[in-house]
Specification:
With 128 residues, the protein is mostly beta strands. It has no helices and eleven strands.
């Protein structure tokens, strides 16, 4: 069964850190671009970061310098290290196979040409 499972969310104070994990099963994660996305009710989904099969990384401007995406091929897992968290970072974070759109934004991979896999998400709350 092809799936992605996120973990590592929780409640953290502003300025704190969290590391999210995205574990893959049923496919080799390193063969695909994997992105982290976040969703707040009432707002559009936002592509936060992406790591390509070659290891190239992309970040949305609002998290550059604070978030780091990485991959452990042996564990078939992608991580998102989040530092200096702000209240506006609070959201449900999910990982998915992804691509870079023509405008440079990170979007989930969709369409028959792509392997489409998305996790259920993990909640990140940032509050004092």
């Amino acid at each position: 069964q092809v799936q992605l499972v996120e973990s590592g969310g929780g409640l953290v104070q502003p300025g704190g850190s969290l590391t999210l994990s995205c574990a893959a099963s049923g496919f080799t994660l390193a063969n695909f671009a994997i992105g982290w996305f976040r969703q707040v009710p009432g707002k559009e989904r936002e592509g936060v970061s992406c790591i390509s099969s070659s290891g190239r990384t992309n970040y949305v401007d609002s998290v550059k310098g604070r978030f780091t995406i990485s991959r452990d091929g042996g564990k078939n897992t992608v991580y998102l290290q989040m530092n200096s968290l702000k209240p506006e970072d609070a959201a449900v974070y999910f990982c998915a196979t992804s691509r870079i759109d023509s405008d440079g934004s990170i979007v989930p991979a969709e369409g028959s040409a792509y392997l489409q896999v998305r996790g259920q998400g993990t909640l990140v709350a940032v509050s004092s």
